[in-house]
Design brief:
Blueprint (H helix, E strand, L loop, with lengths): L5 E6 L5 H15 L2 E5 L10 E4 L15 E4 L5 H4 L9 E3 L4 H19 L2 H9 L15 E5 L3 H12 L3 E6 L10 E4 H11 L2 E4 L13 H6 L4 E5 L8 H9 L3 E6 L19 E3 L9 H16 L15
Parallel strand pairs: 1-2, 1-3, 3-4, 4-5, 6-7, 6-9, 7-8, 9-10, 10-11, 11-12
Bound molecules: NADPH dihydro-nicotinamide-adenine-dinucleotide phosphate.
NADPH dihydro-nicotinamide-adenine-dinucleotide phosphate binds next to α3, α5 and β7.
């Protein structure tokens, strides 16, 4: 470490020194010498910048000079949920096109695997049975994307390109590029629940989106609908989802996020064959592509310039 190195408090929830060093190398390439100090160490207390993912609650409040907290991912619920979050510090989140790309691919994989009976054919293959099912008609199948931000819009765009009839749901009234239809508010939400066959959640976790998908929402979906969640687990009332699937009302679900992560070994989702479980890997932050944004935020803050991708703390995203 050189004396004039920029010091950044760093925390991810993996305890991986390698990851920290990877970030340090990527940021040093862009900012000049910089050191990533583990947030939990004494040396972090004087840092003006923090680069974090699920930091221990209350710890950021101990950094008296903190100017900017940069989320290591696009979601910021891990920060907003800290009751002691330092008020003077701005929150900046990553908005990396590589994340939108990866998440879109994951959603496409989930939808096509379901519609083309992937789980059934894998089971048949295990038994060496060469037996086909009638193919579903999927042209213009109505698909709802809940959350039309950086990621949702890209998902919607790609699904429209695959021939689905896509509608996007946002908080504010918005127009999306043709042929994507738009919906907003509670009425828009309920219209999509009732009219779509596939439901993709890619919402930020806020008080308004917590438990949005409950027994009432699932009951409003068509019989045989399929639910995909790449947003946050707490947007779903998990026992309600399980009940909707076990009753035969929903065809199944593909989930990347859960109310408790890691998903506990005794969670009933593991036992439900119609639920496909992914361990929160739909889109992972890549320092090689995301470092430019982190460096830009630090440079802007150091020069008292406006910050991009600033989080509205009150709104929660
Ligand atoms: P953005 O902030 O860019 O977009 C959020 C979208 O959700 C906006 O369209 C917003 O509406 C909408 N929204 C927010 N609150 C409501 C509400 N109450 N009712 C209706 N719509 C609402 O987020 P991103 O696209 O960057 O990311 C979305 C989320 O995806 C993240 O917060 C994170 O939880 C999750 N994620 C998951 C990953 C994974 O690996 N599983 C990876 C990365 C992100 P409006 O346009 O009106 O503001």
């Amino acid at each position: 470490m050189t004396d004039n190195a920029i010091k950044i408090a760093y925390y991810d929830n993996t305890d991986s020194t390698e990851k920290r060093q990877w970030w340090q190398a990527c940021l040093s390439d862009r900012l000049g010498p910089c050191t990533l100090v583990p947030l939990t160490e004494e040396a972090a207390l004087s840092c003006e910048f923090a680069l974090v993912w699920y930091p221990p609650k209350g710890r950021l409040a101990a950094l008296d000079n903190l100017k900017v907290i940069i989320s290591l991912g696009q979601g910021v619920d891990h920060l907003i949920s800290d009751p002691d979050l330092p008020e003077q510090a701005a929150i900046v989140r990553l908005v990396d096109p590589d994340m939108s790309h990866a998440l879109s691919q994951w959603v496409i994989l989930a939808i096509l695997d379901h519609l083309r009976d992937g789980p059934y054919y894998r089971k048949m293959a295990e038994q060496k049975r060469f037996e086909g099912r009638d193919q579903r008609q999927t042209r213009n199948l109505p698909v709802a994307v809940y959350g039309m931000g950086a990621i949702g819009l890209e998902i919607a765009r790609r699904l429209a390109g695959l021939g689905f009839d896509v509608s996007g749901w946002s908080r504010s009234e918005r127009q999306f590029p043709e042929p994507i239809k738009s919906a907003h508010g509670r009425t828009g939400f309920e219209n999509l629940l009732a009219s779509c066959d596939i439901h993709v959640c890619i919402l930020p976790l806020t008080p308004e989106t917590t438990h949005l998908f409950d027994s009432k929402s699932f009951a409003q979906m068509k019989k045989g609908a399929y639910f995909i969640n790449g947003g946050r687990g707490k947007q779903v009332v998990e026992p309600d989802l399980l009940a909707a699937i076990r009753s035969g009302h929903l065809a199944g679900a593909c989930l990347d996020v859960f109310a408790t992560e890691p998903l506990p070994a005794d969670h009933p989702f593991w036992e439900e064959p119609a639920i496909t479980i992914w361990p929160h890997v739909a889109a992972q932050t890549n320092p090689d592509t995301a470092a430019a944004q982190v460096a830009a935020a630090i440079t802007a803050a150091a020069n008292n310039q406006p910050l991009s991708n600033l989080v509205d703390k009150k709104r929660g995203y």
